[in-house]
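Students often ask why we bother encoding 3D structure as a string. The short answer is that it lets us treat folding as translation between two languages. Here is a chain of 236 residues written in the first language.
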Amino acid sequence: MLETKIKAIVIGNKDYKEKDMLVTLFSLEEGIITVTFKGVKNPNAKLKAGKEIFSFGDFIYTKGKTNVVTSAEIINSFYDLTKNIKNYYTACNIIKIIKTVLMQGEKSPALFVDTLKCFDLLCDNSISDVCILNKFLIRVFEGFGYRFNLNKCSTCGNDFLNHRFMNLRYGDITCYSCRVGEVEEISAGVYSALRLLSQTDYSNLKTLTISSNLMQEVLDILHKNFIFRFGQKLDL
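And here it is in the second language, the structure alphabet:
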């Protein structure tokens, strides 16, 4: 049978038959796929580590009526995600976002790389989990063509004066005169934080000096935007 090697992150697992498990992988090469780990619930199973949530590694599987994993070489288990409850739930929300925005078999190399960067940062504990989740959400929106226009009103093109409004369904940021539909006013602080987060790479997030309260306000508006766009709530 044809064997395929992929780099992938485990984003889900569940029991299957007596000793097997069905595992959901988010792969660089093939997007989200479901594979079977046979006999993995045995105490001494050689593939035991490969079924754990968050694990990143090289997986080899045979394609057929069911995809069966024959080898799993773990590069990073991201075990430290389980040591901090806030970081753990943020990582779970990142997985929920991936499952929401991607269909089975849909490739997204950029989202794959972003996921690994976020898991690394969450394990490092030097940046707030809210900051990391905000950056990830912004990158997801950008990846689907929903880049925020943070320079001028996205409708009339004029500079912002005193008020800025986000259209929650489309993410457009408009002035007072151009606001339409489901909109929410965003403060000057949130607007500035969005600009900084959009312009800052993951590797430089620790240089940002945005208060925790302001980060939470940013998350609130991004979460509402996510709900309107994709119809799914996160576990915040």
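Translate back mentally: Residues 212-230 form the longest helix (19 residues). Keep this in mind for the problem set.
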